[in-house]
Amino acid sequence: MKCVAGLLFFVLDLPRVAAGGGGVTVFTHDGDPVLKMADISDDFVRHLICALPLMLVGIMSLIFVVVLYKGLMRKATGAAIEVPKLDYLASKVKTGSIAFLKEEYKYLSVYVVVWAIVVAVLFSIVPMKDDAKDDGIRCAACLVMGALMSGLS
Asked: What is the model's pTM?
């Protein structure tokens, strides 16, 4: 039970440690730390230790989705189970959903462009750092890339 509590403490403590805070992380049963993030001087290694569990969970999630997709695609549908009307209904649902997504992305693209312009102007007028002249463009580019990645998902 102590190992589970130590692991939970380690996961909850990661954002603070990654931000440069010290602290104790995972403990063994005798109370000695297994890993002291404050003793790691290389920022890349600290960030890697913090990001690696999240990347592994993401990869495992993608593998899970592929397994579910393959299992679903093996199932018989429509004419194969002697219900041809099911294929007709499935095609109607598919064309309707594609039409809906096209219309939604038309409006969403205008929305993102407007907000990208607003962000670019605001952060160009008042940059985050005094000498940074490209803050507006960088922030607008991040907004657009985030919207594109969200749309692709």
From this structure: 0.53
Residue-by-residue pLDDT tens, the chain, 153 positions: 444 444 445 555 555 555 555 554 555 667 777 778 888 889 999 899 889 999 999 999 999 999 999 999 998 888 788 888 998 999 999 999 999 999 999 999 999 999 999 999 999 998 888 888 888 999 999 999 999 999 888
Rg, Å, the chain Cα set: 25
Q: What are phi and psi of 27, to 5 degrees?
A: -115, 150
Which residue, 123, 101, 113, is CA-closest to 143? 113
Alpha helices (H) in 22-83, listed in sequence order: 43-73
User: Which residues are 27's β-sheet partners?
Assistant: 33
Q: How remote is the C-alpha of 97 from its chain's centroid?
A: 24
Tokens of 69: 């997709």
Single-letter amino acid, residue 72: L
